[in-house]
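Hi R.,

As promised on Friday, here is the backbone we talked about, encoded as structure tokens. Could you run it through your design pipeline when you get a chance and send me back a sequence?
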């Protein structure tokens, strides 16, 4: 964890792709992790009471979900949420692809889902930005008599 540059390093052994990478942290996550690091007994942000690192996040994640009363949430769910929220914030797909470590855009499309409210807001932008009902003039050849 590089707090100065706001980067979290994912080691190759823990990455699904088998390739390590650095992940940027936003200011809120950086501050929260910094607080945890300041309270930890060892060199790791997340550590056991004796200061040694955890070998896996599975049990800690499961416990955290239980305390938060979250059902059916897995670390994989967080990938979906990450990609979806970036997409809904207007981040371009290529950037989301790189941030999430997806090799192909097709894989990203499995993860980045837009909420129904986001889609509603998107189409409402037409009503807010265009004042006319019809943008294509009606030609005498296409007019229907009735």
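Update: got your reply. Pasting your designed sequence below so it's all in one thread:
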């Amino acid at each position: 964890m590089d707090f100065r540059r706001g980067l979290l390093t994912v080691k190759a052994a823990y990455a699904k792709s088998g390739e390590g990478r650095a992940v940027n942290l936003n200011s809120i996550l950086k501050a929260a992790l910094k607080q945890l690091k300041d309270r930890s007994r060892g060199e790791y942000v997340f550590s056991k009471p004796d200061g040694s690192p955890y070998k896996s996040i599975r049990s800690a994640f499961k416990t955290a979900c239980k305390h938060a009363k979250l059902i059916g949430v897995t670390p994989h769910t967080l990938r979906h949420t990450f990609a979806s929220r970036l997409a809904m914030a207007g981040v371009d797909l290529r950037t989301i692809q790189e941030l999430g470590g997806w090799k192909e855009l097709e894989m990203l499309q499995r993860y980045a889902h837009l909420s129904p409210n986001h889609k509603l807001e998107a189409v409402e932008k037409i009503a807010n930005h265009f004042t006319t009902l019809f943008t294509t003039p009606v030609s005498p050849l296409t007019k229907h008599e009735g």
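One thing I noticed while checking it: The chain has two domains: 1-55, 62-146.

Thanks again,
M.
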